[in-house]
Every structure is written in structure tokens, then in C-alpha cells.
Task: structure prediction
Amino acid sequence: MRLLLIEDDLTIASFVSKGLKEAGFAVEHASEGKTGLHMALTSCYDAAVIDIMLPGLDGLAIIDELRQRRIKLPVIILSAKRSIDERVEGLEAGGDDYLTKPFSFSELLARIQALIRRANDTPEPTRITVGELSIDLRTRAVTRVDKKIALQPREFLLLEYLARNAGRVVSKTMIMEHVWDYNFDPQTNVVESRICRLRDKIDKGFDTPLIHTVRGMGYVLKDTA
Amino acid sequence: MFLKTLRSLGHTLALRLTLWYAGIFAASSIVAFALVYASVVAVVQDRTDEDLEGDIEEFVSFMQSGGLDRVKTEMAKETQGEEASHDFIRLWAPDGRLILATDLSSWPGLGNPLDVLARVDSTDEPILATLALPGRADKVRIIYGTIAPGLVLEFGESLEEDEELIAALLRGFLIATLLGGPIGWFMARRALRGVQEVTRTATEIADGALHRRVEVRFQGDELDTLARTFNTMVDRIQALVIGMREMTDNLAHDLRSPLGRIRASAETSLTSGGSKAEAKAMAAATTEECDRLLEIINTTLDIAEAESGAAKLKLTDIDLVELVHDALELFQPIAEDKQITITGDLPDHCHIHGDRQRLQRVVANLLDNGLKYMPAGGRVTIKLVAEGERVTLSIEDTGIGISSNESARIFERFYRCDRSRSKQGNGLGLSLALAFVRAHGGDITVNSTPAQGSTFTVVLPRSRHGRYFQQGP
Result:
């Protein structure tokens, strides 16, 4: 998977490239708009991460140019502005995505993967397995080793979200957005208490825990055995 | 210098008003005076003419009763003493022969009115004429009338009194016109003094004296209204400025605290050169603090946007009951952990036109607030009642309650009750809820008894057409 990153802030760029490379992507970086557009036009990428505010040519102009040339490169726009530009809203409707700075890397990664999945029309899995844990997405049956685990609907959604992102840290905000359809994280730690309950059902009585807390970042479902 | 003053004077409203006033006053008094003058002159002349005609009739009767001798006596009587300069009488034969005359020493230059005498004799009707004599300042009104065949009486009467009356009228008019200007100036100045006062105060306020107010004179006039409106405006500006100042102070404080913690932990790990685990803990703490900072900034902006009306609500048809159910479900585990009973008293459905994400935050923030200060064993009840075009959502808790002077301030940004300082939170939750509800055209009120609990009541219109809250004071 090849990714194009057009970002003029070199600290952010190196942080993102490093993370994406660790996640298995090949990343090419441009720190200026025109160079970025040239790269996007001459090489083939699976997705692009483009900052809006760029020297030379701004992010939206690059996307406009790409779309005019009928290049269907899935794009994630990075914006330091909180209020969403109407043009960005239009892009969002067109299948691309945006992320407001500062962002957590795990969220960027999740969005890139979702974007590529959508673009490639990847078939939905029917079963996700993480170590001893098996989740049947159609019947909603969850088993660990041979033990059947009964989950409430919302708990299932939470586990499913963690499992779809298995191995990657998901933040509380991401969980709130995907599991509860809330675009904010209430001050009282509702996610923590949910995770706690899910842990009781998934990890209690087993030697190796599957749900891990990554302090300052969020939670991850992974098999460390 | 003088010209400049004059020019700037020309720009003042007072002078312009005065000029207008004086002009209009002068024009209308000229018209009024002309009318009065014409009628006074007519009345005075009529009166004189009637007198003169009466005199002729008298002399006719004198002639009939006593002949020329009687006429002579009466002529002398009429012009006795002082009267000699006021009246004169001459008796003529139609051919211009003077038969009798009174003392004419005050009447120099009186000629022989031969043509008039002929006309009087032929028409038999008295003839009236006004004459200016070269030796006299006043004019004289003269009547010629036949008192007996072949005898024409000429009776002249000075118009001095009439002229004086008319001259007095003219003087009065001139004085009134001349006074009009200064009176107009005075009145305009008086009227505009209030305006100047407002201007002066406004200038002072512009220079930073936000506490200044215009004195209201309670005369119930337009200037009072202007002063009051102006004061209300300044009150609002002052409240906003103070609010903004407090908010900036609070924001600075609330941003400084996490920054201080970030700096401290970073510095510690730099100087101590600790283990990798310690560095990781530091990084985690930094991330958490950054998220907290970000949350404060974003929420402050959300509130500001909603309050200024800049936030565009994404209005869709939403089921408020479903939204409340989701929120209850979300907070249930927390409530259970804290041994708090959380129940909903909800109808089956309640559709309203609203911004889903923002209303989610409103409900979540209010529940959050209710749970946060609740001791174990407490109860939170959320109730939804729809009546006509309005929906009332009340969140009742059995928590610590809020004192009445605190309940006035809990919706202020960054305001935190004394008891809440120890709890997690940024003091923005209720302000945000209020700002979002007001953006929907609704309102939030709180009713609380310390140590017994509080009830937050959210009133929302079902659609944008009904507003239950008017922005502004």
C-alpha cells in the first residue's frame, strides 16, 4: 500500500510517516503543494493525506485538480481550522474524509484504512478472530476458547469496534463516535466504565488479557500471548 | 479662526434647527401679520368712516333744526381746544365758495376741493377720501356730504390714532420676529442639551469609562428614552466586556494549569534521566493533558459560536425520546458503579426539529452534571413532557443542590461551585448546554434546594418557528 503525504509541518510529517510505515504502508512525503500535486499526478497511490494550508498550492486546490483530471485517489484532509469549510463538507460527501488537527495517530490510521477499504470495495468479514477470541458478526455470537460470552447489544458493538481495529489503539473519542454515535467524550468517564464491564466478560478467568489500556491514548484489543 | 468657528457652528444641529425655526417662524408670522394687518386696517377705516358718516347725519339734523347758526355752533363745539388739531370742518357752497370753517391753523395746505364738491352735489351721496397734508405727519380722512341743498359739509378727521394702532401692531410683529431667532436658538439648545449629554458620555465611554451612564431626567420625553436606551446598551456592553474579561482570565487560568503540569512532567523526565517506563508515563500524561486543553479550547469555541449565532445547526427530525434513551443507556453503568438510580419517565416518541449532535451533548452534559455531584444512593430522574409546540425535559437529582446565589452563576463559563472544584470537569458543561439550547430557541432553568437536590428544566420548541427564548436582555 502506497500513501502520499502532503504536509508542510515537518514534525507532524515525520510523526505521521513513521507511524504509517510502522503500520505497513509505504509513505512518500511532499512538503509543498505543487510538488505534492506533481507526485499525485505522476505516481500511483492507494490514498493521500493532504493538509489544507500548504505553501504553493493549497490542499483543496490539489484535490480539485485531481478530481478534474478524474483521478479517484481517496483523500484524507488535515485541517487546523475547526469550522468545517463548505468545500470540505462537499468532499466528505464525495467519499473523502477530513480530520482536525491536532489528531491522534490511531484515528488517522483508522480513517485511512476505512477509506482504502471503501475505495477497494473490500468484502465485509463475517468473522473476526483475535487470539482465543472469536466474534461472529452475523450471529453476534462471541466465544473465547469454548466459552460462550453473552454481551449486551452495545457491549457487542464496542467489542466489534475494538476487534475491527485489533492491534491498533482506539481513543475514547473514536469509541464514542463509532459505538454511541456521539461526536464528543462526556466528562464523566463513560467509556472507561464500559471497557471495565467488557473486560469482566472477556478477560476474567483467562491468563492473558486481550483488552489493554494504553494510557493517554485509549484502548487496544490484541493478543499478546 | 473666527471663520472656522463659524463654519463649525454652521454644522451644529442647534444652529441649523434655529435657522429653520427662525425661517419658518418668520414666514408664518409674516402671513399671519399680513392677514391681521389687512383686517385691522379695514376695521379701523370702517370705524372712522362710520363716525364721519354719522357726523354728516348729525349736521343734517342740526341744519334742519337750527339752520346755519346751529351748524356754526356745533362746528365750533366739535373742534374745541385740542380737537382743533384732530378735526376740522368746512362748509362749502357747491361752486367752491367757503361759507364757514373751523380753526384751520393746524391744517396748513388744505386746498379747495372744487371737483369733489361738484360731484357730491350731483350724486347726493357722501364722498370719502384720504389726504396727506404736506405740513402734517398723519393722514386725514375727509368726508364730503350735503347737509342741505347747496351746502356741502367737509369734515376731516386725523388718522393719527389709527396710524399709531397700526404702527404698534407692526412694532409688535417686528419684535416677535426678531425675538423668534433667539427663542428658537434657546429652545433648540435646550432640546439638544440631552443629546450633547449622551454624546459626552459616549465619548467618555469610548475612552474607557465603561461605568459612566447618562443621567435620566424622568421627564418622559424622547431624550429620556434616548438616555435610557443608551444606558441599557452600555449595561449590555459592560456585562459583555466583564464577562469576556472574566472568561479570558478563567481561560488563561484553566489553560495554564494543564500547561504547567505538562511542563513540570517534561522537565522532570529531562532532568532525572529516568527509565523508559518513566518517559512513557510522562508521554501519556502529556497526551492526556493536551486532550484536556484541546477539549477546553474546542468547548469554549463551541459556546462562543452557539452564542454568537455563528454555529449552523444541522436541523433534522429527531426523536428526543430515543436520544434520551441512548443517553440513559450510556450513563447507566456509571450510575450503577456509583450506586445511583437513574430512571426515565418518557413518552413513546417525541419528534422535534433539532440538531442531533448538539442535543446529545445537552442531555449528556446535564446527566453528567447530575451524576457528578451525587452521593451514593441518590436518584436521577429524567422526564420528558410534550405540550403543543413545546417540549419540556427535566432532569431531577437528589444531589447536594446549589445555593441560590450559586445557581445564578452556574451557567457562566468556567464557573465552578466551591464543592465542584475538587471534581473532574472544566466548568463549561452547563454553559455549553445552555448555549446549544438557546441556539435552538429554547432555554434552561434551574431550581435547587441545597442538600435536597436540583432540577434542571430544558424547554425546547418543536420547530424553529416557535421560540421560547429571546436573545438579549
About this structure: The CA atoms of residues 196 and 440 of chain B lie 41 Å apart.
